[in-house]
Fold this protein.
Amino acid sequence: RFIQDHHLLDSLPQGIITLDSHGKVTSINNTAKELLGLDHHIEGRYLEDIFPPIKENEALLSTIKYAIKTGKSLAQEVTFYLPKKSGSLWLEPLIVKDTEGPRLVITFKDLAGIKSIRERISRTEQLAYLGTLISGISHEVRNPLGSIRGLTELIDREIKEEDPKKVYTKTMLDEIDRLNNIVEDLLNLGQPPRSELIPLDISQILSTTVSVARERFNKAIEVVEDYQDGLPEVIGDRERLTQAFLNILINAFEAKPKNIKISVRQSDEDKIIINISDTGCGIEERHIKSIFDPFFTTKQKGSGLGLTIAKNIIDAHGGDIKVKTEKGKGTTFNITLPIC
């Protein structure tokens, strides 16, 4: 009764195809049609009529034939190729006996979704470990750095400006500051993602963040700000969102573009859409998947944590961040945040 109940089968998240003892399809649910890209009537057809006997479908067909022949289930990852769709699935055939004789129930799971969940779990575990590590070492690192900087400043004061050795102390102070910035980034990474949540004007936060970024970088770079009037507020932590936007803007300024454009709009889905674009050097395609990973950087003095922190903050606010880039032409960060 279960495998004959079409309403019940269509409500399941797995793709399901049932075959009779002759290998003919007796039912297929909507999830299976979507996963396999099937939009036509296939009941009453043989499985080989649906899955052509080609190399890409070899493992799928052999797994199903093995179950029919032996009555044993062999769950495994298989590839498939159909006119409208191709890819990989987790397939599990199962022999079920009912009043009309044995049937084969084949379940399909979308591996892309499973792999995405695994990647998110792995990322969460990495960040949890980092948070524990950071809380233990940050104090031990910052105190010696403070002492080293103080002593270096004393030595620097004793050296006259015209002395060639002055460049050594200046380099030491710059490197100490760089280490302090890395520790600060690590602390931001290990902090709880949200604290004080209040209604916020995103346009105002971005405008303030742009002013801060201008002070740190080349003021000759043109920044075009385009904010839609009357935007609804977003619930969030002002300090943390400012940090996220600043990290993305720093990335844009460091690409040395001719100009940077920031636009904010409300979507039809009750979300705020923020685009931060630059006309800089762009990102190599092989690096795109890694830019949000902790410690990944292509810069000589980068910590590789700025965009990781930005993504963590956006994710914690129920938002999303994506990147589009073209080498030599520039990069666009697309951020969405839910409105109040």
Remarks:
- The first strand starts at residue 15 and ends at 19.
